[in-house]
Amino acid sequence: MAATADIAIIGAGIAGCAAALTLANSGLSVAMIAPPPDGRDRIGEFLSPAGNAILRDLGLAEAFAAGPHREANATFASWGSELLAPRNAIVHVEGPGHVLDRPAFERMLRDAVECSVVAATVDDAAFEDGRWSLRLSDGTSLTARFVLDCSGRAGVLGKRRRVDRLVAAYGFLHQYNDDVEPTPATLIEAVASGWWYASLLPDRRLSLAFFADPDTMPRRISHDTGIWLGHIEQTRFIRQWLESACYRVGAPPVLTSAGTTWLDPPAGPRWAAAGDSAAAFDPLSSHGLTSALWSGRRAALAAAADSAGDPEPLTLYAETVQGAVKDFLTQRRSVYAAEHRWREEPFWQRRIHSGRGA
After folding, report:
1. Is the pLDDT of residue 89 over 70?
2. For 99-158, how does the pLDDT look when each residue is reduced to its tens digit (9 = 90+)?
3. Nearest Cα to 317, choosing from 306, 328, 309?
4. Are the C-beta atoms of 122 and 33 separated by less than 8 Å?
């Protein structure tokens, strides 16, 4: 006999945990379906100031304040200019943003979740006679009245749309001389074939990533440290920071998808998507983690209301996500258009002219 729950949450990432915490005192039975954490480091460590209020709503403000994260007030960018310009954000109504120790942040979220967790993935999902039937990878099944898809970019439910094929090559660098005190900052540098991102993490490692399209990413970069090093050497400010702060590049980068994709629609009868499952934005937005918290919480509130017979919050949630996607595509074109040095290069051409009809 299949296990049952009022609400099934697919995924135990940031959005899934935010959803589970939101539903903790709802009186609804909740089951989370997710494989065990793989322990891998991931890029995406900036939590914008708006995330502070969401953490308070989730009851995690005190746990978050205990660290080990650092406030993020200094960002420098070479974008649209040969100069490296500061972009300081010292004062926010919501408090400061933070550069996270992401593994510690995700552990904090998972440790706070109290619902049952099934260590599996979803192989198939079908909606019939007012209930969802989920077939799981461990050979079991689960039925639920409502499904929240928080499974990430791949998603389980709905139809995805895409505006680009951005990929990231990333790695985490260690100092070879820890007597040198690295600058606690974030640096962005645009180049002809894409753009670079580097940020000092709370544990003094440096998160380094290059964002490009598949055809502008150097071939075999994820297999050859020499190619990775050679590409870093072509930068100006990234290279100088690595040299001055004594960071060593000892391995090739990992490749991952970083494109802008979204579900259309992001919710429907007795289901909703949250986090990257609903909308995954170009990392240049710097709002991925905050969006995951916000959408996980809002989708869960909509699911609870729908379960009580009120579908209006679910409709509003879908409209809000769709509006956010539309606004982001407009902002995205504007930001990329501000980099005029390589307007004729394929990477920049695609972003200036793409997404107009999305």
Report:
1. no
2. 999 999 999 999 999 888 889 999 999 998 889 999 999 999 999 999 999 998 887 887
3. 306
4. yes
Total residues found in the chain within this entry: 358
CA 229 to chain CA mean position, Å = 26
Instruction: Identify the CATH number of the domain defined by range 167-257.
Output: 3.30.9.100
**How high is the pLDDT of residue 116?**
85
Instruction: Give dist(CA 289, CA 270) in Å, integer.
Output: 25
Q: How far is CA 38 from the centre of its chain?
A: 17
Tell me the Ramachandran region of residue 141: left when phi exceeds 0, alpha when psi lies from -120 to 50, beta otherwise: beta
Lowest mean pLDDT among 18-27, 57-66, 67-76: 67-76
Q: What CATH class does 3-42+104-162+261-330 carry? A: alpha beta
Count of beta carbons in the 10 Å neighbourhood of residue 250: 11
Cα dihedral 242→243→247→251 (10° resolution): 80
Classify 166 as helix, strand or coil. coil
- Write out the H or E segment, with its range, that includes residue 324: helix 312-337
Q: Where are the domains of the chain?
A: 3-42+104-162+261-330, 167-257
Give which of 257, 258, 271, 267 is closest to 321, Cα–Cα: 267
Give, in order, the Cα–Cα distances in Å from 353 to each of 154, 183, 282. 26, 36, 15
Residues 6+ apart with CB under 8 A from 72: 46, 89, 96, 97, 98, 99, 186, 199
On whether the pTM is more than 0.70, the answer is yes
Q: Are the beta carbons of 5 and 31 closer than 8 angstroms? A: yes
CA distance from start to end of the chain: 44
Distances (CA, A) of 175 to 170, 187, 218, 324: 17, 17, 25, 39
